[in-house]
Description:
Elements: E1 5-11, H1 15-32, E2 35-41, H2 47-52, E3 60-65, H3 70-80, E4 86-89, H4 98-110, E5 115-117, H5 128-144, E6 157-160, H6 161-166
Parallel strand pairs: 1-2, 1-4, 2-3
Antiparallel strand pairs: 4-6, 5-6
Protein name: Glycosyltransferase
Organism: candidate division KSB3 bacterium
Pfam family, one: Glycos_transf_2
Amino acid sequence: MESQVTIVIPAYNEEAALTSELPKLIAFCHQHHWQLVVVNDGSTDNTRHVLEQYEDESCLTVAHHKVNRGYGGALKTGILSVTTPYLATMDADGQHRLEDVQTLCSVLQQHDADMIVGTRQNQRSANWYRGLGKTIIRTVARILVPNTITDLNSGMKVYRTELAKQYI
Length: 168
């Protein structure tokens, strides 16, 4: 069966998160015939070592940046390597449920959408000013974008690959 979805995960100093999350990601991708791309963005911890332990997994592709290029740079590297019709981006720390990625992919296809942004539930800001900042950003986004996006900073997004590649 040919893969339809690739999950792209940027990773900067995510040794602890990947140690626990990567086996789950790989098992999920094998089960659903998906691909997984992890971009090690110049990590200074043992992220590279954790990824090397899984380099023989058929569903996994790993890219390494020698220096940190930032979140956007890591996403760009990952997205450019995708060959499936759909791609999902998510953070390495396990804050998103893999089943939700599957749901978002189904919704994207059913509604012929180009992109869907996931929403984290029960977010709590550590500081009052971060909460205020998020409220201001959401308000500005509602004015500029006709569709409601409740979590602009969510790392979980699903795209049509051809569209994502056009805009990076």
